[in-house]
Amino acid sequence: MCYGKCARCIGHSLVWLAVLCIVANILLYFPNGETRYASEHNLSRFVWFFSGIAGGGLLMLLPAFVFIGLEEEDCCGCCGHDNCGKRCAMLSSTLAALIGLSGSGYCVTVASMGLTEGPWCRDSLGHWNYTLAGTEGQYLLDSSTWSQCKEPKHIVEWNVTLFSLLLAFGGIEFILCLIQVINGLLGGICGYCCSRQQQYDC
Question: Is the pTM of this model over 0.85?
Fold first, then answer.
């Protein structure tokens, strides 16, 4: 098995997931494509935590590019023994993976809290509040309660969809980074590839 090739595949996947997280988080600022709710700060507080932009997005790009660049990495050398350098690089990639775990974990946590609390919206009395917060997340299973939010229109659907996407993307990122922790440790112990022929193939 070529551990470096596996790491690069994970890295490329993380780049796309990071971009999707950033896009999903940005869309949360513009319900129905309108900008006034953001300027008036009439959005869920969890939107302002930047879980998709920072946690699942920008912070995830660091480990992603580390994993992608493992083929050229040779941080040790070990008296000219290239494979020793590859082992060192694979072991060091676990540190980048831990950064990825923290970023994706943050994204998942904030998205979960955003889903549980529900959106910030105007109720039938004209008051802005977390109308569905008292349901403790049960509103997700009962769409008949969504009509309690009068403004922005379809804000419940908007928040549920985008926070769910952030939850899913962050969860996948977390799993991929966890796989890379194991992959990096195995690559550091076994070598970049387990045979010389595989090393050329990588």
Answer: yes
